[in-house]
Amino acid sequence: MNLFRLAGDMTHLVSVVVLLLKIHTIKSCAGVSLKTQELYALVFAARYLDLFVHFVSLYNTVMKLVFLASSFTIVWYMRRHKIVRRTYDKEHDTFRHHFIVLPCLVLGLLLNEKFTFREVMWAFSIYLEAVAILPQLVLLQRTRNIDNLTAQYVFFLGAYRVLYIFNWIYRYFTEPHFVHWISWIAGIVQTLLYGDFFYYYILSWKNNVKLELPA
Amino acid sequence: SSGSNLKDEL
């Protein structure tokens, strides 16, 4: 495992910890999109189907369990927790996320590395992950007062995607036959979606003002 | 195989 990959996984982990910290300790999910969180829960459920079938390493197994458990925990908090759910900004979280699940499933059925259940689910999860951040980005645009933890959550999530691209470039030059169009194209699309956010995040950080995304 | 070595990513 190269340093980019490890750094990517760690920023992914940090993003989840930041979000859980906000939800668990502040008991608030203001500015957090439940739609995006539900999509991530679905992404991990579909991708990690191989958890008990295909063993890679202890590291992989533990990380998969962490991402599965944390995504479902966050959804549970936002839907069921007495205090947290009242802070959910339902009116502004209106992205119709169900409508992107079906196209991703169709794409997974059409474009996959092998036409087996697990491979189709894997491709589906890659396509879905690429667009899962959209409801969150839309909600941020509509949020007047983006708190630091929410902004940091999205920043770390975006950083994870950027680092994964560096990881692929590194692997491409160091491993023979390392070509993966499906995840590369989906990964690049996913990273580009953060472009706008990164621009305004860095701007707000440089000028030391609160983050605000233009609608 | 080229298909399986990416499955070591998360």
Automatic annotation (TrEMBL), chain A:
GO annotations under biological process?
A: protein retention in ER lumen; protein transport; vesicle-mediated transport
Query: Is Protein transport there in the keyword field?
Result: yes
Q: Tell me, what's a Pfam family for it?
A: ER_lumen_recept
PROSITE patterns for this protein: ER_LUMEN_RECEPTOR_1, ER_LUMEN_RECEPTOR_2
Extract the InterPro entries matched here.
ER_ret_rcpt
Q: Which UniProt keywords apply?
A: Endoplasmic reticulum, ER-Golgi transport, Membrane, Protein transport, Receptor, Transmembrane, Transmembrane helix, Transport
Q: Which GO terms describe its cellular component?
A: endoplasmic reticulum membrane
Bilayer topology annotation:
Multi-pass membrane protein
Compartment list: Endoplasmic reticulum membrane
Q: Is Transmembrane one of the keywords UniProt gives this record?
A: yes
Domain of life, per lineage: Eukaryota
TM region(s), chain numbering:
55-78, 99-115, 121-140, 152-170, 182-202
UniProt-recorded Gene Ontology molecular function terms: ER retention sequence binding
Which family is it part of?
Belongs to the ERD2 family.
Protein name as it appears in the record: ER lumen protein-retaining receptor
